[in-house]
Design brief:
The protein is an alpha/beta fold. It has helices at 5-20, 26-34, 66-76, 93-101, 112-124, 161-165, and strands spanning 55-56, 62-63, 83-87, 104-109, 131-134, 147-152, 167-177, 182-189, 195-203.
Length: 213
């Protein structure tokens, strides 16, 4: 597990690309500048790690494009100490970004292979989520609710009600909604039953699948 000057230089270039694409949150840019993304990918993809692209990981899944990670994290408006929930741990890269910003991270993954691999890998890099959970993200994590923010990193055919219900007042749900193409959508909880909804651009994600556990 090596992180060389070459990797660090490529990472700075990636940070500049993200700035040029409109990402402004300093804590998000700093996290991406620091985390060795190449170590989250299979070795054959090392050269691609710092391009602004999604790539395949195990179990037919993908590590999200850095711009997408940055865009979603920026919408969450994470502050140090916030309790946050991620749906779709995958490679753990987004989890690491949230840990690096200082959030208390809970993350759910439904693919056992990925859950096991990432549970071993993240602590090796020094990233300790509060808890990684093998389970169904559609249900959220009621025993730890409410959350300051929730991020869904797979394309959701609809907005799961439990995720809205598990936000604190003022809390934010960032979720790509749609089948083949998804609209990035932000819900801000204004009251027990009131939510503000804002839609952003189109993104492409692997699907949020129904529980198979
Ligand atoms: N955040 C990840 C993105 C991985 S792709 C990263 O940075 O690498 C989306 C992930 O969501 C996949 O790992 C997929 O297995 C997972 N997923 C799909 N449906 C799910 C569900 N219902 N509950 C939890 N995870 C799910």
């Amino acid at each position: 597990m090596r992180d060389t000057f070459k990797h660090q230089g490529l990472r700075q270039q990636l940070v500049n690309v993200l700035k040029n694409k409109g990402i402004t949150d300093a804590s998000v840019l700093a996290a991406i500048g620091k985390i060795p993304r190449h170590l989250f990918m299979d070795s054959s993809f090392l050269d691609h790690a710092y391009q602004d692209k999604a790539f395949p990981i195990a179990a037919d899944q993908t590590i999200s494009q850095p711009y997408t990670v940055a865009f979603q994290t920026e919408l969450m408006q994470v502050n140090r100490g916030d309790k946050v929930l991620e749906i779709g741990t995958g490679s753990g890269y987004q989890t690491a970004v949230l840990c690096e910003i200082g959030a208390k991270v809970y993350s759910i993954e439904r693919q056992q292979e990925l859950f096991k691999k990432t549970s071993k890998f993240l602590p090796k890099l020094g990233y300790r989520a509060k808890k990684l959970i093998f389970g169904d993200g559609y249900k959220g994590l009621v025993e730890q609710a409410p959350f300051k923010s929730i991020i869904v990193t797979a394309g959701a055919p609809f907005v799961p009600k439990p995720l809205l219900a598990q936000l604190e007042i003022g809390g934010r749900l960032v979720i790509p909604v749609g089948d083949k193409v998804q609209t990035m959508t932000l819900f801000v909880r204004k009251g027990p039953t009131e939510f503000d909804k804002t839609e952003f651009g189109e993104f492409r994600f692997v699907p949020l699948l129904e529980d198979k556990n």
